[in-house]
Design brief:
The chain is of the alpha/beta class and 345 residues long. It has 13 helices and eleven strands.
């Protein structure tokens, strides 16, 4: 039996994208033990994976902050006597830990992020718009470097027996004979967010649709305030922003008939529970390799502009200053795409 340390810090969506890979790896090698090192708040993503998957929480703003914190974290990890270390992040923190493991004689491997090809994909002139390798494949290749070969086979973190609806029914109510539509209107960066005034037209349409119950997803005080104002205007919809734990959100997402999401963490969370996602892309593009697990390109909403994509993560200022990649998407187009998938799938 070997013990393999897997490192991925970063944002929720990036960590969620490791789940299909870690699941496939751990089911292929049930004789080994896999330890995921990430931020403590991401632990619920891994709690339903096979029993040979464990989680180690890092306190990157507390005791594990800075160089002294990384040294402390390394000492804590060293006690576990890992046989391999897989770096799925390749940033300053993980590179430093990897260096320490190399000095201890532990075989390590790190992700190839494809920075040059992503730069070519997003450059302003002479853009090379070709589909890049997905993050899932990039993660898989890290383990192959360490000698672990496996196929990516994953459907959901849940089995039918694991979905405990009682955890959310007090908030959501019973489903009955009605479609459940999740709407995740937010993202970390402006270049990913469908303008809120246009989002509201989509929400208003489905709020008045008796065949549909709408759930709003998000996080943080600002997003909660926006969602609460929409609920005041459209009482038939329900906001679960900051009302559910991550484990409960996953249960709710597993019960949705469809999730409408930006290129954001909620797209990846819904994908983890095998829920179909209609995703909207502005400054970013699916060709960068961040499409949700097993999601269809036919369910994406985007406009064809020569400047797209201008960013891998959506954080850059708009070249045109008008965010045409978002404003040129009409609410009627979004509504029609959602309805076609919701009622015909």
């Amino acid at each position: 039996m070997s013990k393999i340390l897997i490192i991925r810090f970063s944002a929720l969506g990036d960590v969620a994208m490791t789940v299909p890979v870690v699941y496939s790896l751990s089911t292929t090698y049930p004789m080994h033990e896999f330890y995921v090192l990430s931020r403590q708040q991401f632990k619920p993503l891994f709690e339903l994976l096979p029993v040979n998957v464990h989680f180690i929480g890092a306190d990157l703003t507390g005791k594990h902050d800075g160089l002294s914190g990384m040294n402390r974290l390394h000492r804590e990890l060293k006690v576990e006597k890992f046989d391999y270390m897989a770096d799925l992040h390749s940033v300053l923190r993980s590179n430093y830990l990897r260096f320490r493991f190399i000095m201890n004689g532990i075989p390590t491997a790190r992700i190839h992020k494809g920075r040059l090809e992503k730069k070519r994909l997003t450059q302003k002139r002479h853009k090379l718009l070709i589909p890049l390798e997905t993050s899932f494949l990039r993660y898989q290749k890290v383990f192959e470097k360490l000698g672990f070969h496996f196929d990516l086979r994953f459907e959901s973190v849940f089995t039918d027996k694991q979905v405990d609806i009682s955890k959310i029914i007090d908030i959501t109510g019973k489903k009955e004979d009605i479609k459940w539509l999740g709407i995740a209107p937010f993202a970390k960066h402006k270049g990913k967010i469908y303008p809120l005034e246009l989002q509201e037209k989509v929400i208003s349409h489905f709020a008045n649709e008796k065949r549909v119950k709408v759930f709003l997803f998000g996080g943080g005080a600002t997003e909660q305030n926006i969602a609460d104002k929409w609920v005041e205007k459209y009482p038939s919809i329900l906001s679960v922003v900051n009302k559910l734990k991550t484990s409960q959100e996953l249960v709710l997402m597993s019960q949705l008939d469809l999730m409408f999401s930006m290129d954001s963490a909620n797209m990846h969370l819904a994908s983890m529970v095998n829920t179909t996602v209609v995703s909207l892309w502005g400054a970013t593009h699916p060709d960068a390799g961040f499409m949700g697990w097993n999601q269809s390109a036919d369910h994406t909403i985007q406009v064809d502009l020569s400047c797209r994509p201008c960013s891998v993560y959506g954080q850059k200022e708009c070249y045109r200053k008008d965010y045409a990649c978002l404003y040129q998407i009409k609410p009627t187009e979004v509504i029609n795409r959602i309805e076609n998938v919701l009622y015909n799938s």
